[in-house]
Amino acid sequence: MVLLLLAACSGGGTDTARRRSPAQTTATTRAPAATTTTAPAITSPEQVPAPADVPAAVAAITRVERGLRAAERDPALLDRLGWEQQKVYGTLVAHPDWQEAVLAALPDDVREIARANIDAGNALTAPDLGPPLPALPDWTILQPLPVAELRTFYDEAAAATGIPWAYFAAIHFVETKFGRIHGNSSAGAQGPMQFLPSTWAVYGTGNIDDDHDAILAAA
């Protein structure tokens, strides 16, 4: 009797397993689906990592210099490439012992570009840029015009030429900090946009020291 009951129980378990559908069987043994994570987008220079070694610097320079010269002109992409470019060359200036190895490993199409940037970085950080000036330059520091007024000058120049207004603002800033510095350069350039008198004679109208006239002449 006991043997018959054991046989019946054993047979019943086998029948249950056999009656289970293939889908049910698969569901109990299927591995969980793999998950993937996407790296967050780089939205500021602080998020760009510095290359940790020579191979990483070679890869970064190759990607950046080719990317900046590619047909893709998406502003977000160009921002990121610019930040990466600054980070990799800054790292190389800080690690002069990497420089020759990096240049030797770069592909031909970017090697001379990288060499020029590395040379410029080395020159800017060299201790022998020149002795301190014995006296302050012959400059007068002025109060610049209001931002809104300067913007109307840049917009006028942009409308006359098709060149974006920010180019004129950038030149104005680099040359005289938006007209704050009044004085001649060592080359004899004058005014807020630093015109040589010979160039002003061709392109200038009005007063070389006037922000409006100088911005339009630069345009």
Considering the chains and any ligands shown, give keywords for the structure.
219 residues; mainly alpha; two-stranded antiparallel ribbon; 10 helices; globular; disordered N terminus
Summarize the structure.
Helices cover 58% and strands 2% of the residues.
Extended strand count: 2
Estimated structural class: mainly alpha
From the N-terminal CA to the C-terminal CA, the straight-line distance is 109 Å
The helix content is 55-70%
Tell me about the largest β-sheet. 2 strands, antiparallel
Gyration radius from CA atoms, angstroms: 34 Å
Order of helices and strands: HHHHHHEHHEHH
Number of helices: 10
Tell me what portion of residues adopts beta-strand conformation.
under 5%
Mean pLDDT: 85
Main sheet: strand order: 1-2
Shape assignment: globular
| Low-pLDDT sequence parts | 1-18
Question: Can you give a write-up of this model?
Answer:
The chain has 219 residues and is mainly alpha-helical. The protein is built from ten helices and two strands; from the N terminus they run ααααααβααβαα. The radius of gyration is 34 Å and the shape is globular. The protein starts with a helix and ends with a helix.
SSE topology sketch:
Blueprint: H1 2-19, H2 22-29, H3 54-68, H4 75-94, H5 99-105, H6 108-124, E1 140-141, H7 147-161, H8 165-176, E2 181-182, H9 197-203, H10 211-218
Antiparallel strand pairs: 1-2
Helix pairs in contact: 3-4, 3-5, 3-6, 4-6, 5-6, 7-8, 7-10
